Amino acid sequence: ASDVYKRQEMYDNWEELENSIVNCKKCKLCTGRRNIVFGEGNKEADLMFIGEGPGADEDKEGIPFVGRAGQLMNKAFQGLGIDRSKVYIANVVKCRPPGNRVPEVDEAKACLDYLRNQVILVKPKIIVLLGSTALKNILGNEYGITATRGKWIEKGEITYMPTWHPAALLRDENKKIEFWRDLKEVVEKYNSISSLSLIHISE
Ligand code: URA
Ligand code: SF4
């Protein structure tokens, strides 16, 4: 196996992990990025969201889900009473794939140790897998998003909810309804197992 497939060391703190990513050249996506999109949110969240990879807007700002798909997700969050700052959001790959194509196997594989490290540090109880790329890379290639979405999958300490990627909602009203339904279930389960509030409480 090439170096890319070697397991990197795991970091036990955020600073070291983030520093290790800033100059990462483990895969060919490093050549096209403007910014690394590391992840954002509550580093002690019980609820984590995993997307695919940065698009143009994310690449520009260095923040996940700030483009059109992200705005749609924010709208769902607002409607369901999820304060974005109370959850943690990350992607399978940290650098933008050219033309927003799906990350290739070697790229996802090279980057996945970072995501695993993020999951280990956040220790979420629930992970929402946004779309096929997140589903297959986290739970395995045998899973298909159409058959799996909306169904809870327990693995180890974490319960997973696969659902549509927000970008898929932009062109399909049905998927929008299912996405909302899935996230509503997530909020209900969350409220039954977490002591942390998802709602923004102003003082
Ligand atoms: N799509 C993703 O998968 N992640 C982002 O951060 C933005 C769009
Ligand atoms: Fe490194 Fe991930 Fe960027 Fe590839 S996508 S260069 S593995 S940070």
The secondary structure category is alpha/beta
CA(first)-CA(last) distance: 55 Å
Mean pLDDT: 94
| Sheet with most strands: strand arrangement | 1-3-2-4-6-5
Helix content: 40-55%
Hetero groups in this structure are: uracil, iron/sulfur cluster
Radius of gyration: 16 Å
Low-confidence stretches: 1-6
H/E topology pattern: HEEHHEHEHHEEHH
Biggest pleated-sheet summary? 6 strands, mixed
Fraction in beta strands: 5-15%
Task: Please tally the β strands and state the result.
Answer: 6
Could you provide a short overview of the structure?
The protein is of the alpha/beta class. The protein has helices at 14-22, 56-61, 68-80, 105-122, 132-139, 145-148, 166-169, 173-193; strands at residues 40-41, 47-51, 88-91, 126-130, 153-155, 158-163. The longest helix has 21 residues, at 173-193.
Question: What are its keywords?
Answer:
203 residues, alpha/beta, 6 strands, globular, disordered N terminus, binds uracil, binds iron/sulfur cluster
What does this structure look like?
- This protein has 8 helices and 6 strands, in the order αββααβαβααββαα.
- The protein has helices at 14-22, 56-61, 68-80, 105-122, 132-139, 145-148, 166-169, 173-193, and strands at residues 40-41, 47-51, 88-91, 126-130, 153-155, 158-163.
- A 6-stranded mixed sheet has the order 1-3-2-4-6-5, with helices on both faces.
- A hairpin with a 2-residue loop joins strand 5 (153-155) and strand 6.
- The model is unreliable at 1-6 (pLDDT under 50).
- Uracil (URA) binds next to helix 3.
